[in-house]
Specification:
The complex is a heterodimer of chains A (about 120) and B (about 700). Chain A is mostly beta strands and about 120 residues long. Chain A has one domain (about 5-110). Chain A is built from two helices and ten strands; from the N terminus they run βββββαβββββα. In chain A, the strands form three sheets. Chain A has a four-stranded antiparallel beta sheet, with no helix packed on it. Chain A is elongated, with a radius of gyration of 19 Å. Helix content of chain B is about 30%, strand content about 20%. Classes of the chains: A mainly beta (about 120), B alpha+beta (about 700). Chains A and B meet through strand 5, helix 1, strand 8, strand 9 and strand 10 of A and strand 8, strand 18, helix 16, helix 17 and strand 23 of B. The complex binds zinc ion. Zinc ion binds next to loops of chain A.
């Protein structure tokens, strides 16, 4: 079995043509498609990462470190097996998920054909 | 066609084909001696850049937003000193314009001792404050090469002080815009031209001193260069300039060929359209094939013809050289050759390639968003073979003050704040990002300035400057934090104060591989504050950080949230403005961060206890700052289990997700939701299926 690291969080099993998790090595998704399609996906409330807003005492405003929900949401992608965070996307609500990586698997196989098994 | 508005010149960023003469001169070049010779040239350019920084007066010039470069005769950037590589590379279009229109024009011409001033957005691809002066170098009557000094001078006579108006509605409200004008002849400044410029701007002192600093830089470079050319022979010199450009392109090609072929995508958003808070998008798709990179910006938002939201195009490409030459290919020579293995497709009539008359003062927003997208598609491409070069983006928001008025000595002043040079850099695959590192666009040379020095000529009293807590993207390796700051108007009745930049409503700098992006960045004014009174008796409640100011609100007054950007408005003596620059993106899952590093961050005040507990999931003794390894592991395991519970399968998530949409107001200028597709494009570099000269 030959696993090629692609990012910090995902690798490819070239024999099986599968994306795998770099942490637990579980197979996630066919390698000819973007790996995000094999992840568990969750819209994370931004305040859970950036903290609660601070109300201004003298008026109704509040000071926030979290993105405004009408402008941007935080979408997290997890390994379905071990729960590792594979990638995070910052998107306006409803904006199509970014298909981050689509690799030329045939080329990749050719490239690694010579190296040891 | 003398004096033409030239829509093609900005597209000539890539190196020109070598001339027959250059090819002849390259024949006998031996790499080692060429390396030594190039080092000599680089040292000369560095001395020029030092001269520039030492003599300039504007924020940009004094704090290192400068470049000094040597160009080939045909205008390609060959040798560059400083970190502001994009000024150097974009300068090549200025030189190419001079060569095309003025070299053989009998009323202008190019002679020894001439110098040309250039700051036209449509030619050099950036906003009017980016001003370059270029001088020809002759040897025995023959034009050999060009040298250039480029600086962001801030104030340029636009409709708001400081050179980067938020509210301009067309290019005609954006001040001085000069497409290559002779500013010196026979080694003498033309006083009538300088006098004309000075009548167009709010801060003639800074403009004049910056122009003279550029002239001094060019004279130093010419003086040093001439004996070097003489000794080596002019032929060898011009051969080496072309040689280094070719070597750079070939070396980049070689490295690119080791990366995995594929398609990589990224989208970055901007939360301001002039004075309005609304969304636009810069989309980048990278096709990596063999030893060539094809960057496609189709899907980016359409041009906003009457708001600050657009770039002229070449700047979108040129700005990538900051990351490419300053980070990814830092070990290659720094010149235009880096673009040779790269091609770009920009949709016509989009924010990344807008028509001439639309406002360009905010082009830097588009450049920063675009260069972030380019950096991130590349990270996904390079990790497999070069994990050690993998790096998150440094903050891209440009968030800084803009100001103008009359200072404590009764002198006019107008500029942008040096705070923009205090951003955090991105985390790497093995190391945290650098805190308060510099400016994104000048990673090696820029700094946020000394408070005492700034206070000496500005009517400001700095209440504090420090690490902007939690402004980094959290991660296994965190981004560097930015800088927080608060400024009180001091010793004048009133001054105009506003901000520049973006990212108050969105995460503008994202993370990588499970690392988070940076927070939204607040900026506020406390009007009618009692701060002078608090300072008079050294009140212990005077805040010393943004967190303390926001949380305690011990200063009395009217708190107004203004954000980035906001138009400069009259701000009275005693009023306070407070904000902070953003940090760099985070790398990797934060719950994989070494708890000892989290404790160190707490000790340094770089992150909050809230983040240590809630984001990094560390259990620790708050007094001793000692992490409990077992309890931390248990908490982190529980988080992983919880993620598995709360996460949905992609298809199910997507079905629900795609039902959502921002409000109409937010996407008024976004274009077609969710994606704008174009039919007409501009090409920079060769593109499959497109012949040269095709639209
Ligand atoms: Zn896993």
């Amino acid at each position: 079995m030959k696993r090629i690291p692609i990012t910090e969080t995902v690798e490819i099993d070239l024999d099986k043509e599968m994306w795998c998790c770099s942490q637990c090595h579980a197979e996630i998704h066919p390698a000819r498609e973007p790996y995000v399609k094999g992840c568990l996906v969750y819209e994370r409330p931004a305040a859970e990462i950036y903290g609660p807003a601070i109300p201004v005492k003298s008026n109704s405003a509040s000071i926030s470190y979290a993105p405004q929900p009408d402008f941007m949401r935080v979408v997290e992608f997890y390994c379905p097996e071990c729960g590792s965070l594979m990638t995070v996307q910052y998107l306006p609500p409803g904006h199509p998920i970014t298909l981050e990586i689509e690799l030329d698997i045939d080329k990749l196989k050719k490239k690694h054909a010579g190296s040891s098994k | 066609m003398p004096g033409a508005i030239d829509y093609e010149i900005g597209k000539r960023l890539h190196p020109e084909p070598p001339t027959r003469e250059e090819l002849d001169n390259m024949k006998d070049i031996e790499p080692t001696s060429a390396g030594i010779f190039l080092h000599k040239l680089h040292t000369i350019a560095s001395e020029g850049n030092e001269t520039l920084v030492k003599l300039g007066a504007s924020t940009g010039c004094r704090w290192g937003d400068t470049a000094c470069a040597i160009y080939t005769r045909s205008g390609d950037s060959a040798v560059c000193a400083s970190g502001l590589y994009f000024h150097s590379v974009l300068g090549s279009t200025d030189v190419k314009y001079i060569m095309k229109y003025w070299l053989n024009d009998p009323s202008v011409g190019v002679k020894p001792g001439d110098a040309f001033f250039c700051n036209s957005p449509y030619i050099r691809g950036t906003h009017p404050p980016d001003m370059g002066i270029y001088a020809p170098i002759f040897y025995r009557g023959e034009l050999l090469c060009w040298i250039g000094a480029v600086v962001h001078t801030g104030e340029c006579g636009a409709c708001e002080p400081g050179g980067m108006p938020t509210g301009s509605r067309s290019m005609y409200e954006e001040g001085l815009q000069v497409p290559a004008l002779k500013i010196a002849e026979n080694y003498r400044m033309k006083e009538d031209v300088l006098n004309y410029f000075n009548h167009m701007v709010r801060d003639p002192r800074a403009l004049t001193l910056d122009i003279k600093a550029r002239m001094a830089c060019l004279r130093v470079v010419e003086k040093r260069l001439t004996p070097v050319i003489e000794k080596a022979s002019p032929g060898y010199f011009t051969g080496v300039l072309r040689y280094v450009i070719q070597v750079t392109g070939e070396a980049a090609r070689q490295r690119i060929s080791t990366w995995n072929d594929g398609t990589y995508r990224f989208v970055q958003f901007i939360d301001t359209v002039g004075i309005l808070h609304a969304l636009t998008k810069v989309a980048v798709k990278l096709e990596k094939k063999g030893d060539h990179l094809y960057f496609d910006y189709d899907g980016s938002s359409p041009e906003v013809s009457d708001r600050v939201a657009n770039s002229p195009g070449s700047g979108v490409i040129g700005v990538n050289t900051v990351y490419l030459l300053g980070h990814l290919f830092y070990d290659l020579p720094h010149n235009s050759g880096i673009l040779e293995p790269m091609s770009f497709r920009l949709p016509d009539g989009s924010i990344v390639n807008a028509s001439r008359e639309s406002p360009k003062a905010g082009c830097a927003y588009v450049h920063e968003a675009g260069s972030l997208s380019v950096q991130y598609v590349l990270q996904n491409a390079i990790y497999a073979t070069s994990p050690e070069r993998t790096e998150c983006a440094g903050n891209r928001g440009f968030d800084t003050l803009s100001y103008g008025g009359v200072n404590q000595y009764g002198e006019p002043f107008a500029d942008a704040g040096a705070e923009m040079n205090g951003i955090g850099f991105g985390a790497r695959s093995y190391l945290d990002g650098v805190d308060v590192a510099g400016a994104y666009f000048a990673p090696l040379t820029s700094e946020p300035g000394e408070v005492e020095s700034l206070e000496s000529h500005l009517p400001f009293l700095y209440l504090y400057r420090g690490f902007h807590q939690d402004s980094c993207g959290h991660g296994k390796y965190r981004g560097g934090v930015g800088m927080d700051y608060a400024v009180k108007v001091h010793a004048v009745p009133s001054t105009a104060l506003g901000t520049w930049g973006f990212g108050s409503l969105i995460t503008l700098t994202q993370g990588l591989f499970g690392g988070y992006g940076v927070p939204a960045l607040p900026f506020l004014t406390v009007r009618g504050s009692n701060l002078d009174n608090m300072l008079s008796h050294t009140d212990p409640a005077i805040p010393s950080s943004a967190r303390m100011l926001y949380q305690d609100q011990a200063i009395q007054g009217h708190y107004v949230l203004r954000g980035y950007p906001c138009v400069a408005e009259p701000t009275r003596e005693g009023d306070l403005v407070a904000g902070g620059t953003g940090g760099g993106g985070g790398y990797g899952d934060p719950i994989n961060r070494d708890p000892a590093l989290v404790m160190k961050d707490l000790q340094n005040g770089v992150i909050s206890h809230w983040a240590a507990r809630n984001v990094y999931k560390v259990v620790y003794d708050e007094k001793r700052l000692a992490a409990d390894a077992e309890k931390t592991k248990a908490l982190r395991d529980a988080e992983k289990q919880d993620r598995k519970k709360r996460g949905k399968k992609f298809a199910r998530f997507e079905k629900e997700w795609l039902q959502k949409k921002p409000s109409d107001e937010v996407i008024e200028y976004y274009g077609t939701w969710p994606e704008t597709r174009y039919e007409s494009f501009s090409y920079f570099g060769q593109w499959p299926g497109v012949k040269k000269g095709d639209k």
